[in-house]
Amino acid sequence: MTTNKNDKFNARTVSEEGRSIVYLSGELDLSVAPDFRLVMEPLVGDSDVDLAINLKELKYIDSTGIGILLSILKARHSMNASFSVEEVPTQIQKLFDMTGIAKFFEPQENSQ
Amino acid sequence: MTTNKNDKFNARTVSEEGRSIVYLSGELDLSVAPDFRLVMEPLVGDSDVDLAINLKELKYIDSTGIGILLSILKARHSMNASFSVEEVPTQIQKLFDMTGIAKFFEPQENSQ
Amino acid sequence: MKADQTVTLNLPATADYVDIVRLNLYGIASKMGFSYEDIEDMKVAVSEACNNSVLYAYGQEGGLVEVVFGVNGEELTITVKDEGVSFALSQEASDAPTLHNKELHDVEIGGLGFYLMQALMDDVRVASESGKGTQVVLTKRLTRSEEKV
Amino acid sequence: MKADQTVTLNLPATADYVDIVRLNLYGIASKMGFSYEDIEDMKVAVSEACNNSVLYAYGQEGGLVEVVFGVNGEELTITVKDEGVSFALSQEASDAPTLHNKELHDVEIGGLGFYLMQALMDDVRVASESGKGTQVVLTKRLTRSEEKV
Ligand SMILES: Nc1ncnc2c1ncn2[C@@H]1O[C@H](COP(=O)(O)OP(=O)(O)O)[C@@H](O)[C@H]1O
Ligand SMILES: Nc1ncnc2c1ncn2[C@@H]1O[C@H](COP(=O)(O)OP(=O)(O)O)[C@@H](O)[C@H]1O
């Protein structure tokens, strides 16, 4: 089937002054996980920039998406590079809290 | 099942100066046909007011809804009272044209 | 082209559930790349077929409607099936059910369902067999904006 | 209270179709009067069950997922069934799969699916039988804002 994935999920990167922000919109689920990984790969590897994702327009995430965020967190952590989330919708924050991924997104001074 | 019909279809009547306009929104289908008939009944019987429905916010109609409009047209015609439609969305106008109900909504001077 | 895929939906033959059929149609057709207008057309056609199963197939005791979405790269085929009473589609009814040549006082309500299905889809097949209920097969071809290489 | 009603959906066990299950869930649950938040919770839980059937049930040749929505005035029961390989849900996995007590370098990816289903639904039952595939039954009770008289 020709899936119109762009209607469903979109990731737009804005880079400036040592900082990259990826704006996600739509539904981040199993079907678009490979697309999301592809967008993030080159950004994750670049330890010189601060990396953030903006979730304001993200309507849906499940353990597939949370798993990808977790692997990015691990990769960035091992490189001593930052990775943060911005404008997290209530429903998604709830899932971040439930699973426990939330604490890894805390500002560095608060993390153990 | 407890259907939350109001989320699905709504009809709001605004009456002023010898004119009643019923604003429809949502989907007018078989499941809400009885509700729509109930709203229209007292208005259709009152030949002293000009009756109109505004379809700007109507997202869907099928032959069930068109059938009700047709029976209102017939009733109003036999009473020599007016019934018109306002702000018809393109997709709905297409169905009005296809079925042929469109010509009955034409301004009176144009009808045969 | 990928192999054919099928989504099958079984639901109570009541007016309350016809919007669920439209939701599925929307989801599947937009995935396939149909235009907004084509999707709206198909919504009406499929609902007409479902409305008929709801209204005419079963008596008081009710029954089920099965909707099968057949997906391939070329077209969407939607089959609406019930196991209710059968009927004969009269020639007159399918010939001139519209209002185009009628005066308002001559108009009778009803009979627009099959006309709309035919006008809105590329192909409509009806099979209504005694004791086996009714099966309506609706087909819409996918017209691409850009040709695939 | 009206009698129980059932909507059954059969679809290919591929990632592409899981959003169709969410559409049906949305349509049925909002009809029943569930809150926005409850619907969002159920969307995730049902998707987790479907994702598992897509990822683990079948090999290369693929297969089908059946989703049954059981509707009554009290609760929504969603059954996600596949006919793929079976598995044993390990006790450890369902005991502490979250990240709450872990450091980032200790974290392993995966294992959150059943945890989320349990956290988001009122009841989760899993049956995975050799040769019969897996069946996950998810239940959410309808909490009314106003009590019916
Ligand atoms: N699924 C069905 N089962 C039994 N009878 C049907 C079915 N579908 C259609 N019919 C019969 O065919 C007639 C024409 O249907 P249709 O063109 O949709 O117009 P309408 O529903 O407005 O009468 C119906 O009035 C009904 O008698
Ligand atoms: N439908 C299924 N068919 C076969 N195995 C399954 C199925 N659902 C779950 N499993 C097994 O149970 C494990 C735990 O599932 P889950 O809690 O959803 O976490 P994850 O999918 O992230 O591994 C899976 O890794 C898989 O081995």
TrEMBL record, chains A, B:
InterPro entries: Anti-sigma_ant, STAS_dom, STAS_dom_sf. Residues 9-112 form the STAS domain. It comes from the Bacteria. Pfam families: STAS (PF01740). PANTHER family: ANTI-SIGMA FACTOR ANTAGONIST TM_1081-RELATED, ANTI-SIGMA FACTOR ANTAGONIST TM_1081-RELATED-RELATED. Belongs to the anti-sigma-factor antagonist family. This is Anti-sigma factor antagonist. It comes from Saccharibacillus kuerlensis.
TrEMBL record, chains C, D:
Pfam families: HATPase_c_2 (PF13581). It comes from the Bacteria. CDD domains: HATPase_RsbW-like. The keyword Transferase applies. One of its GO terms (molecular function) is kinase activity. Residues 11-140 form the Histidine kinase/HSP90-like ATPase domain. Keywords: Kinase, Serine/threonine-protein kinase, Transferase. Transmembrane segments: none annotated. This is Serine-protein kinase RsbW. PANTHER family: ANTI-SIGMA-F FACTOR RSBW (PTHR35526:SF3), ANTI-SIGMA-F FACTOR RSBW-RELATED (PTHR35526). InterPro entries: Anti-sigma-factor_SerPK, HATPase_C_sf, HATPase_dom.
